[in-house]
Design goal:
Keywords: Lyase. The chain is α/β, with parallel strands linked by helices and 320 residues long. The chain has eleven helices and 13 strands. The chain has two domains: 201 residues, NAD(P)-binding Rossmann-like Domain (Rossmann fold, 3-Layer(aba) Sandwich), CATH 3.40.50.720; 100 residues, UDP-galactose 4-epimerase, domain 1, CATH 3.90.25. Helix 1 crosses helix 8 and helix 5 runs parallel beside helix 6. The structure holds guanosine-5'-diphosphate-alpha-D-mannose (GDD).
Amino acid sequence: MKTALICGVTGQDGAYLAEFLIQKGYEVFGTTRDAQGKSFVNLRRLGIEEKVAVLSMAPEDFRSVFVTIKNIRPDEIYFLCGQSSVAMSFEQPAETIQSYTLGTLNVLEACRMIDKPIRQYHAGSSECFGNTVGVPANESFPFSPRSPYAVAKASAFWLTANYREAYGLFACTGVLFNHESPLRPYRFVTQKIIQTAKRIAAGSGEVLELGNLEVSRDWGWAPDYVEAMWRMLQQDLPRDFVIATGQTYSLEQFVSATFGQLGLDWRDHVRSNAEFFRPTDILVSRADPSLARIEMGWKAKFGMEEVVSKMLDSDDIVVV
Ligand SMILES: Nc1nc2c(ncn2[C@@H]2O[C@H](COP(=O)(O)OP(=O)(O)O[C@H]3O[C@H](CO)[C@@H](O)[C@H](O)[C@@H]3O)[C@@H](O)[C@H]2O)c(=O)[nH]1
């Protein structure tokens, strides 16, 4: 039986990955900053709360990271920790940058010191590419970060690449484009749209206020994407991959699809409010995930319209 350590197991990706690895027969350990007395909502929603051993680990604290990895001696580590909101990174830039750079460095250093070859997955982000006007971004597309979050993720990406090259570690980064699910917190735009549209359809009479409706993203289905993480660690050689559907839609199209599936015209219920604009934002985010298909046999199963219907179908109550 293989052992996996998921750092950041309580988030959307951590919970789906834990579910996926349990189904694959792994023994799964997970970390969160403070595991004492917490209830793990996402793990409970997936019915796996009792199947994951959750430990406390502070990613920025080397001692905490080292001791956790040394005690568990996992075959695979999935490092998914960090402040994941791009919007919040403008309010908390230092916390965001520290969580990714120090956290990533600590895992890489700890793995160097432990006498076991541990395969590492690091969570990268399409935010690193910035605007991808013209050619869709593949693994050799240059980085042009447009937020403190993206700067932090770019730094973590290069740390991982450097440690792989310098010390021969099996460490790779998945450069994931947006991926959504019912476990998405409300502060991300898709969940805000889905939940508000559902309330409007039920007669709430409210108006959905959003920022820039002209931005575009490549929206995929999060459970698909955790499989790509696992596949990356099953390759013969460590390598970075772009993970996306390959289809880009504007936010207006996402909104239109959501209201349309509820039998409503979005124009009657949605307003753009400058309060939700970011100081800098990615206007166009376009992906070329063909390497993942060629090398790992991975392809996104669901596109934007299906993501919308799956999120609408979920009965989960999201805490606003
Ligand atoms: N959150 C939010 N975003 C809004 C809103 N109105 C418009 N937007 C726009 O909608 C786009 C998507 O925003 P988010 O859902 O917050 O996601 P993100 O910034 O694209 O980042 C997500 O995807 C990255 C790539 O996978 C991830 O790296 C990141 O952690 C996060 O999950 C952004 O251009 C944002 O400005 C709003 O009311 N709320």
